[in-house]
Amino acid sequence: MMTVLLGAGPAAAFETIRCQLADGFDFPCGKPEGAGYYKARGFWPNGHLGEDWNGSGGGDSDLGDPIYSIGRGIVVQSEDVKVGWGNVVIIRHVFREVTGKIEMVDSLYGHLLERKVKVGQMIEKGQLVGTMGGNNGMYPVHLHLEVRKNLAIGMNRSKFAKDYSNYHSPTAFINAHRQLASDFKKYDVPINTFAPYGGELTEAQERVSGATSSAANTASGSAPSRGFTRTGRGLAIPVINGPGSGYLLRVNPQRGPPRLPQRRRPGHLGPPPYRAARCPLPLRIRMQGRVISGPGLNPRLPMVR
Predict the structure, then answer these.
(1) Do 65 and 158 meet the contact criterion of CB atoms below 8 Å apart?
(2) Residue 209 banded pLDDT, cuts 50, 70, 90
């Protein structure tokens, strides 16, 4: 875990966790296709901001059924919120759109009987996050699922526009993102971007709201944040490690991952060219019976064409 500063002062600091891109999204019950479950209530703007899923057995026969994460991500909330929510889990997913843009969404799982994950935990697609409930008998048993664009909402929905500027229709989102390009790089995922239930956003959280919503939705407006912003190519999120660590890598999904910075120079292990690879960590490679050590510039690594 590390801290990213989006402005001056401690209130502008976010804790972050490094996470790989989600490689696609599945349905949260009856994985991966929702087999044995149906959507009892759908999504509509300015009304029901998620979907209610029920088991096909009828009644409360689905009490305690397993609920799974729709995709790889980081748990940013796992709490009994009480009131009309009960047990809630929110998972934050960073992913690459088919256009090549890097985006993030939050998936919310509400009214759970039990929570099986904790804040800060890295979750894989299809991993158990909780069991289906009805908020301790307040409702018939079902799963309430939301998919949110705005990472500052948390449990304070009344303070944000209840429309497509802040929310996805869950089924439409999942169907449009079943399989996505991924890689081995890790990205900083901020985990404390929303206020406690009933609380007010900090200045830095306001900036996150502005960066991740398609409209300025909070009363005081949102200013672009430094280090965590939306651009024409998607969310600007720093690459943490993997090939090319320390460089800003942009991927064309049609051409695959970019190559490391390289140059041509003579060498001793065969005909040129060779790749000059800058290694972020000490490196030992056995090549033709010899050991080449790092860190730093290693001109004797043959170029992969």
Answers:
(1) no
(2) confident
